[in-house]
Design a protein that fits this description.
With 118 residues, the protein is mainly α. The protein contains 7 helices and no strands. α6 runs antiparallel to α7.
Length: 118
């Protein structure tokens, strides 16, 4: 109820900012799955999902977060924002000594619009 009275707390109060980010990371927003489900491997793609390129990988997380602006542009170059996310993700994987991800699952330009899926 506090957020209904003062919605600006979501970007002013550090504790509320953290909780809002954690909620967004953990909560599926139908028809989208949660980022946590994708990152942890709990998202189990159906055959229709697989046929449409919706498999666990970095690209689908970008689609969940900002897909309406950065993704679903088949036949075009990867959006510059998405390309920058991919570059940053690769640097972080290298920095932490984590295994590389398959290049085919890193982009989101060819993914369908997740919010159009039922």
């Amino acid at each position: 109820m506090d957020l209904l009275i003062d919605p600006d707390r979501v970007h002013k109060d550090t504790y509320t900012v953290f909780l809002a980010a954690l909620w967004f990371y953990m909560t599926p927003q139908a028809p989208k799955m949660s980022i946590h489900d994708v990152a942890s491997g709990h998202f189990k793609p159906t055959s229709v999902d697989i046929d449409n390129g919706l498999v666990n990988g970095f690209g689908i997380t970008t689609s969940i977060i900002n897909g309406g602006l950065e993704c679903s542009k088949p036949g075009q170059e990867e959006d510059i924002r998405s390309a920058y996310r991919i570059m940053t993700f690769k640097h972080l994987l290298e920095w932490f000594g984590l295994p590389e991800e398959d290049e085919a699952t890193m982009g989101c330009k060819d993914l369908p619009r997740l919010w159009a899926w039922a």
